[in-house]
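hey m, so remember when u said the tokens were messed up on ur end? i reran from scratch. heres the input so u can diff it against urs
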Amino acid sequence: MVMEQRLYIGFRGKNNASSTLVRYLSKNPYLLTNSFGGVKQDIENLADYYEYVMMFGVDKNLKNSVRIERVAEREGICLLSDLDLDEISKRFDTAGVKNCISNIPTHYLCNEAYWFSLQKFKGKAVFIHIPTIRNIGDDFFERIGAAIGCL
């Protein structure tokens, strides 16, 4: 049995852009519960053999762009991604996806999920905020796939 090197994680929801994106990117996406307790349990239940994890959540203020999160904070403890976020940003640039890297944790459900993933996967995770479905252009998922498909 061949194990996937990376895991794509989004949030449940029929019209949730992160759910749609991870289903586009992977045959085996993982969808998180939309609650603080559920997110923790969902991540604890994951196998830990993945080389790295790519997580996606929605920010309704984004339009045809993404925000790459560097840090998650929980109860005063900050955890940072060990992945090369500058390289991920460059790949988005090459694929024509506007992006930025944020060093400020969001303090919402996405931050909670990211924090537990960074802890479980020892920093080998990244969280990327994407726009809502209505703020995404026609080929947005394809461009994201082109950017991260070869990481």
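this time it looks ok to me. The domain at 6-148 is CATH 3.40.630.20 (Aminopeptidase). if urs says something different then somethings off w ur setup not the seq
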